[in-house]
Amino acid sequence: MGRSDWFRANRYDPRLRRAQDFELLLRTFPHSRFHCLEEPLLGYRVEQLTLARQFRSRKNVLRILLRHAVRHGGVRLFWGAAEQGLKFGLDSVAILTGLKFKLLRHRALPVSECEREVFQRTWAALQTN
């Protein structure tokens, strides 16, 4: 969520499938103010993890980090790129062995009962309109 004028001035890069938010935040953080909200504004279900999808995501994030590291310097960005490679290795093991959500627990965090109720009320309201 953000101001319309900020999003008009800071466009998403449509070429970066599955990494647009990451690139936008990395590109704009030097001249923007961000805040962390307590309540979730978006929820989605991950029913299936595929190696192709994970590879595309990790590859795009790795490219973004390397591009920013070369342009702006910064060892931390290079470390971040190396970390993406390691994470893809873990993703690969998890997906290929069938241990997907056991190894990648953060992908399957349960929502609280309160969050579930809010979602169900909101969903029901949208269905009736």
Characterise the protein shown here.
The protein has 129 residues and is mainly α. It has one domain (4-128). Helices cover 62% and strands 0% of the residues. The chain contains six helices and no strands. α3 (51-72) packs antiparallel against α4. The longest helix is centred in the middle third of the chain and has 23 residues, at 75-97. The chain is globular.
Number of strands: 0
Strand fraction band? Answer: under 5%
Query: What is the gyration radius calculated from CA atoms?
Result: 18 Å
Average pLDDT for all residues: 84
Helix content: 55-70%
Order of helices and strands: HHHHHH
Q: Please, how many helices?
A: 6
General form: globular
Q: In this structure, how is the largest beta sheet organized?
A: none
Structural class: mainly alpha
Tell me the domain tally: 1
Task: Catalogue the unreliable spans.
Answer: none
Q: Terminal Cα separation, in Å?
A: 23 Å
Q: Key features?
A:
129 residues; mainly alpha; globular
List the helices and strands and how they pair.
Elements: H1 4-9, H2 20-28, H3 51-72, H4 75-97, H5 100-103, H6 113-128
Helix pairs in contact: 2-3, 3-4
Summarize this entry quickly.
The protein has helices at residues 4-9, 20-28, 51-72, 75-97, 100-103, 113-128. It is mostly helical.
